[in-house]
Amino acid sequence: MHLIWMALRASSRRLWGVCSRGRLRFTCAAGSTDSASAAVQRERVEARAEKPSAPSTKNFELSPFALYLLDRGPETLVQASREELLGYHRLMFTMRRMEIGADQLYKAQKIRGFCHLYDGQEAVAAGMSQVITFDDYLITAYRNHCQQLMRGDTVEGIIAELLGRAIGCSQGKGGSMHLYFPENNYFGGNGIVGAQVPLGTGLAFAAKYKKENAVSITMMGDGAANQGQVYESFNMAALWKLPVVYVIENNQYGMGTSANRAAANPLYYTRGAYIPGIRVDGMDVLAVREATRFAKDWCLQGNGPILLEMQTYRYHGHSMSDPGITYRTRDEINEMRKTRDPIEKVKSRLVDVGWVTADELKQTERAIRQDVDEAIKRALDAPEPAPELLWKHLYTTEATRVRGTSIDNGYEA
Amino acid sequence: MLRYLRVLCLRDWLLDHTVAWRQYARVRRSLPLTVTFTPLQIGLPCASFATRGDRVWSSTIRKRTFSTENESSPSTTDVAPGPAVGDRAQRSTTPSLYPGGGDKLSGSVSNSAGVVKATEETLRQMNLFTAINSALSCALESNPKVLVFGEDVAFGGVFRCTSQLQKRFGRQRVFNTPLTEQGIVGFAAGLAAMGYRPVAEIQFADYIYPAFDQIVNEIAKYRYRSGGQFNCGGVVIRAPYGAVGHGGHYHSQSPEAYFLHTAGIKVVIPRDPFTAKGLLLQSIAEDDPVIFFEPKALYRAAQAEVPLSKYVLPLGRAEIVRPGTDITLVAYGAQVRVLLEAAQVVAREDKIEAEVIDIQTILPWDEATVCESVARTGRCIVSHEAPLTGGVGAEVAARIQEECFLDLESPVMRVCGYDMPFPLVHEKNYLPSAEKVVQCIRDCLNY
């Protein structure tokens, strides 16, 4: 009993230490330009004013973590405050609405290119956002809209990029799969399955070389975990004890093939062989937070890489061209939505401990919905990128002449 | 996505942007734009593409030749069309790029071995993706050594090219692989070394790069480096390539030129359902490894009557799809359609009769047909979606100036993609569109 209490105190100290740095919070991270986050901020201030004397934290029991090559894992009895849970709810609901908005825009043929949605997996991005800082490096694959939000971009900026508008984070040149936020060390979305993993390993080497107190969070899907270059990276990271947290988002399907049919060993947290791993309930934002905290500490203590398998689920198909029901049943998706939805989980926790009523949550959701809709509207009104951008960013020096363009009289700068 | 047929896109886009395009060109501080299409002029040839083309070509066209295996029974191709990849697709259909009046195969089709009766029962209207499906189905049926695998092929693949195949031929012969392109291709090489005929699918040609080493270092060189003791001759790698209207950086590329540089493999790109089936079946039968790029923009857009039974078209042979006397236009895959469109425009507006050649196999390519044509016309334009520098056009142009130097009236020109990554929002500017080709034809004729 005493041990548990000590552990709780320790974790609570860490928690407040982290929170006091402020910039981790979604509200701060999202910046002041986004009205959604502004509303969230406003509401949070109001909420604080209403209940100044409310008990600050409560204990929550997490489902156990599976460990590989580790003597001890993250805590399963954790503390969280009302504000934290409300923050998670707002962040995840904003993500959900943003993805639904993207879905609608794609179906209305406003968004072109390929588009991979994150709904269902929000807890992974949201949970990690509370523990890693903008000094840590983050890189992921092409299902990356919500990582961009959690690294500090706005709904408007993200949707604008999806729409190919000039105010998008890649000036409209990248589209859905290529969102970046260098100011906050987000190395972006990468289009080729597994190709970001060696890059993430390189980021970790740089962090170690520069003696930074930072880790590289390198995310991939369960499909990518079968790519050869992933194992080349694992070897280098373990060999040189690099501070890299490999996060495998196991959403059960690599495109249209279930993980069990594509992987000889579907226990992804053990796939590092000589790298320790943890299996995490990726539908529970608190479990993600604790596991990420543990992994980050592990790396910063100089233990080398660690692997987190986030067990999660995507509600949409692989991409917009995949209806998502040819290789799984509608019942399976509905069951998952009903029993394991990450947003519902946070909501029920908030209501169960009596911190907030269902009606209040509904009001918050209505406000977020409105803010996201407005952000989308602004993104739609934004201009398209100038034609000159077509031949910019090819080399460090601007090209004086791009070969191949002479037919229409050349784009000679 | 496949509803964005280039032909329609071009017309719609010009209707919307003719003025913008002119301004855009002037901003480049370039010469005044001399392309003087009106939206109406552009609109008309597109709309009347089928009928005009058919009438003009059918009178003067060469006889199509292909060989067919008499013993093969008509295979069923009960392909469930399934939901369109770009769902909500309006099924735009355009004529196939047939020389002989498009899709008029019914009647008799000649081949070197004799005349094969092609009746209505043995022909079926097919899209490009159903033709591929039909070819795979014929191959699986006629040769037990043929295996089909790749990412998501079990439920038909993202383009539905492999629909129903697993159901018909079983999990042992048609199966999903993990997302491991290098593994898929290397695995195919091993199977081929054991005498199998693996047909490996790379989901998009853009994903072929992780498998580049296996193709270039292993598959292409196995016969050579072992002094003929081993080979991967049975390998066929299928991959959809090219622009699709909005594919962005990683779903639109045309990587064929990288492989053009690799002796030991063959590279084939069909232009329509008929050639797709014939060439794919020959690729599978071929004793050399073949990379078979499929124009994904045409999977649903192109339509033609295709024989149900097995037939093959020879590799390494070009086909004149539109005869002409004034200039030779060379392309392959989806770009053939663009050239035909441009040829129609100059025929109507400038009385220029352009000959359009589909080289079909870009490695090894049919120099004889192209050079014979250029010797007649004295002018040549090569066009492809892939970037200009080091592309197929460079090779073709170099060869033509060697063979036809004294026949040339103007330099061999190229209308290609720009030397840059395939863009997302600026796709239409990047593509070698029909109006760019028309402009180039005029430049050539006025040289």
TrEMBL record, chain A:
GO biological-process terms attached to the record: pyruvate decarboxylation to acetyl-CoA
InterPro entries to which the protein is assigned, alphabetical: DH_E1 (IPR001017), PDH_E1_Alpha_Subunit (IPR050642), Pyrv_DH_E1_asu_subgrp-y (IPR017597), THDP-binding (IPR029061)
Keyword field: Oxidoreductase, Pyruvate, Thiamine pyrophosphate
One Pfam family per UniProt: E1_dh
Gene3D superfamilies: 3.40.50.970
EC number: 1.2.4.1
A GO MF term: pyruvate dehydrogenase (acetyl-transferring) activity
Residue span, Dehydrogenase E1 component domain: 92-388
EC class (word): oxidoreductase
Superkingdom of source: Eukaryota
Reactions catalysed: N(6)-[(R)-lipoyl]-L-lysyl-[protein] + pyruvate + H(+) = N(6)-[(R)-S(8)-acetyldihydrolipoyl]-L-lysyl-[protein] + CO2
SUPFAM superfamilies noted in UniProt: Thiamin diphosphate-binding fold (THDP-binding)
Required cofactor names: thiamine diphosphate
Record's function text: The pyruvate dehydrogenase complex catalyzes the overall conversion of pyruvate to acetyl-CoA and CO(2).
NCBIfam families in alphabetical order: PDH_E1_alph_y
Record protein name field: Pyruvate dehydrogenase E1 component subunit alpha
Native species: Cyanidioschyzon merolae (strain NIES-3377 / 10D) (Unicellular red alga)
Highest classification ranks of the organism: Eukaryota, Rhodophyta, Bangiophyceae, Cyanidiales, Cyanidiaceae
UniProtKB/TrEMBL annotation, chain B:
UniProt-listed GO biological process terms: branched-chain amino acid catabolic process; response to nutrient
Enzyme type, top EC level: oxidoreductase
TM spans (from-to): none
Catalytic activity: N(6)-[(R)-lipoyl]-L-lysyl-[protein] + 3-methyl-2-oxobutanoate + H(+) = N(6)-[(R)-S(8)-2-methylpropanoyldihydrolipoyl]-L-lysyl-[protein] + CO2
InterPro entries: THDP-binding, Transketo_C/PFOR_II, Transketolase-like_Pyr-bd, Transketolase_C
E.C. designation(s): 1.2.4.4
UniProt keyword list: Metal-binding, Oxidoreductase, Potassium
Biased composition (Polar residues): 67-78
Required cofactor(s): thiamine diphosphate
Region named Disordered: 67-109
Domain of life: Eukaryota
GO molecular function: branched-chain 2-oxo acid dehydrogenase activity; metal ion binding
Residue ranges constituting the Transketolase-like pyrimidine-binding domain according to the UniProt record: 126-301
Protein name: 3-methyl-2-oxobutanoate dehydrogenase (2-methylpropanoyl-transferring)
Organism (species): Cyanidioschyzon merolae (strain NIES-3377 / 10D)
Source species taxonomy: Eukaryota, Rhodophyta, Bangiophyceae, Cyanidiales, Cyanidiaceae
